[in-house]
Amino acid sequence: MRTFTYERPTDLEQAVALAGRSGARLLGGGTNLVDLMKLGAEEPDIVVDVSHLPLTGVVRDDHGGVDVGAMVRNSDLAADPVVRRYYPALAEALLAGASGQLRNMATTGGNLLQRTRCGYFMDVGKPCNKRDPGSGCPARNGEHRMLGVLGTSTSCIATHPSDMAVALAALDAEVDVQGPAGRRRLSLEELYLLPGDTPQVETTLRAGEVVTGIHLPPLVDGTRSTYRKVRDRASYAFAVVSTAVLVRWDGPTAVDLRIALGGVAPRPWRARTAEAVLRGTAPTTDSVVDALNAEFAAADPLPDNAFKVPLTVRLVADTLGGLAGGAR
């Protein structure tokens, strides 16, 4: 591991100032950054430890929404009674991620900003446009079973590994950031960038900006949500594919319907094409399959990950069917 400077700011203002320095990386729970530093995939000049900043609240606001601090541990957020009652998809996604030990350390902010688990990114002996721009992407002709089919580019087909962020996408959550120019609030689609020709630039965060929390908007009474994940082993694995589905019924009609997908794209993927087709209808298995197939019309699957398309389509259809049956 390369030598680096360790800084521990005492307040958010100091954290913002330190985060703006060249070569700085923020340390929350350390469950991703420390691993990547050991591998040499991350070589920060300055590690800014923000783990002790007072961003640990889970607070319901006057409008029924919830504000979650960036340093809230994943296990604590999953167990929070307000989250479990009103945002079950989020609690389920958190519990589906990693092991209990990791959830006890991982933070909300760090979960959002974790790097891809693409093997080529983590192996410094291999080319990777995300880690070393311009060096190439061997994944397209190499090992790509776990990699993306939507929103990818010829430069990068890595997927975003977060379970939590998939649920947040379906919940229309927003991310609060603090930087030298003040505070901003971003949707997840505004936060994450698709790889294009610059896969090394993953977010729209500006120099010195620190994620301070997440805002969960209030939901209309009767809204149901859930998260389901397909993985290679039940105990502990990243998603092969996953989905978070939120729906509000008026009889058989889905008056509100949101579908987010994981394991298929460089960011949590809102299936807006499928949503537009299905919202305001009484979905059937066939109509859900047709709508998801329309969503994947723009997909660019490769030989070893093409199975993700039909797998995701069936997962969403089954998940929505479960919500119709009163599963949540």
Automatic annotation (TrEMBL):
It comes from the Bacteria. Gene3D superfamilies: 3.30.465.10, CO dehydrogenase flavoprotein, C-terminal domain, Uridine Diphospho-n-acetylenolpyruvylglucosamine Reductase, domain 2. This is Xanthine dehydrogenase family protein subunit M. Residues 1-221 form the FAD-binding PCMH-type domain. It holds the Pfam family CO_deh_flav_C. GO terms for molecular function: FAD binding; oxidoreductase activity. Keywords: Oxidoreductase.
